[in-house]
Structure formats: structure tokens, C-alpha cells
Predict the 3D structure of the following.
Amino acid sequence: MSIGESTVWLFFENNSQNLIGYGSLGPINIPVGDKSIEAWLIPYFGVSTNFQGQPKSVDRRYRYARRIFQSLIDEAKLKETHRNLFLYVDFENTKAIESFYPDFGFAVLSTEIDETAGRTWILMHRDLAD
């Protein structure tokens, strides 16, 4: 499914209508100093509450969240048009910022404050060549 320039994937449990999670990938221009670089952005990624931490019977590397997120990275690599991949993470999601995303090679790049919404976002980056 595509929305604007982003592509959205919905992940369902085998042989059912149960939504496990979703993810999206789209192009973005990120300002870096005086210039802007073309890159990929993961604007949305999530796992349904019932499927978080599942399946418990497998090593955590193979649970739904990690498999879905890795598939987004793989899609960005397959496109071979941009070397950089970014995502914004809510400042309060410390577990993801400190553990989940770094496990996939992401590092904190900057903190951005959305004064209109009253939210703070962490911009994270990964080089797809790594």
C-alpha cells in the first residue's frame, strides 16, 4: 500500500485477519548544516499490543517487532537510492532509544522539539552501507 511517497506494509498473523503490526518507508530531505541530504525515513512502525514480545517461544531476535523492523531496513537497502535511514522516536520511549534501535545500528543524531504539539523527538540515524 502506498500513501503519498511512502509505502506502508501491514503484517498479519498467518491464516488470520489479526494485525500483528505495521511499518512504512518513504523519502525525506534531512537538513545537515547548510545543505540537505536525500534519505529514507521510517515514519511509522508499530506492533499491536497483543503481539508485543511475541512469540515468547522464540529467541527475542526473531520476535515480531524485530522481524518487522528488520524488513523495513531490508526494503531501504533494496532500493539502493539513498545511503541514509532515519527515524523519529518519542523522547519518552527510552527503552527503544537506548536498546531496540541501537540493536539495528541506529544512533541518536539530534533532539527536536515540536512546540506546537508539545512533544520532544529524538532523530536517529543509520548508514545503510554498514
Q: What stands out?
A: The mean pLDDT is 92. Strands lie at 2-3, 6-12, 19-32, 35-41, 45-47, 84-90, 107-114, 119-127. The CA atoms of residues 57 and 63 lie 9 Å apart.
